[in-house]
């Protein structure tokens, strides 16, 4: 079962996850991190930048979950640009250390396979950060996505486009298509860390952690993974039926030193 960790604030969650990332980095000269965009992982990236110290990160590779189709790579809302600004630059990483699915319309037919190949050549993802959409998506795998899917082109739901319109001038400017890691791709990562904050995520979190595994809630696929940690604030945990059971269980595990 997923380990559910409920913390007092998003900042505490960011610090806990950053610790787990540093443990990985400090034990592996060539760690592969799966990075996510959206508001949720920003607390992790800020905690990483604040605690980086003098580590040599030249062996680190980061693979993004998804990218919009049709935004130039330097568009401020492209996920490539966002990850460089929010994640790579504060850590002093080189652009070549961050691999993002290619959303250029001219190369779409091969974008999925090219990304999967790069991921395989890097040896797969060690720790994958995940947000969750209010509709239960992870990456841009919207409800109805194949549970075995690999990286491919998808169409965003109206709900997701509305959720993301806050980053654009208007809803019409939100791209309609994306290239996203598939659910099967995400499951190949060795450790999944799903973060969610705020009451708006509570229903999706409950469906993902406690609901049936179903394409109707793509995030429920995490229940098939042998090593998954769900890191929440109290509001995002608010609809978990077993909340009382989850709270503090992790702290009481013998030898628990973090996720
Ligand atoms: P958010 O998005 O972190 O901006 O809430 C999460 C997601 O859509 O996966």
Proportion of strand residues: 15-25%
By DSSP (H or I, 4+ residues per run), the number of helices equals 9
Distance between the termini: 14 Å
> Approximately how much helix is present in the residues?
25-40%
The hetero molecules present are: 2-phosphoglycolic acid
Strand arrangement, major sheet: 1-10-9-6-2-3-5
Question: Based on helices, strands and strand pairing, what is the structural class?
Answer: alpha/beta
The outline comes out as globular
Q: What is the H-and-E element order?
A: EHEHEEHEHEEHEHEHEHH
Given as residue ranges, the uncertain stretches (5+ residues, pLDDT < 50) are none
Mean pLDDT: 96
The biggest beta sheet is recorded as: 7 strands, parallel
CA gyration radius, whole angstroms: 17 Å
Annotation, overall tally of beta strands: 10
What this model shows, in words?
The protein has 259 residues and is an alpha/beta fold. The protein is 32% helix and 16% strand. The protein contains 9 helices and 10 strands. The strands form 2 sheets. A 7-stranded parallel sheet has the order 1-10-9-6-2-3-5, with helices on both faces. Strands 4-8-7 form a 3-stranded antiparallel sheet, with helices on one face. Strand 2 (32-35), helix 2 and strand 3 (61-64) form a beta-alpha-beta unit. Helix 1 (10-27) crosses helix 2 (42-51) and helix 2 (42-51) runs parallel beside helix 3 (79-91). The protein is globular, with a radius of gyration of 17 Å. The structure holds 2-phosphoglycolic acid. 2-phosphoglycolic acid is lined by residues 38-40, 131-133, 137.
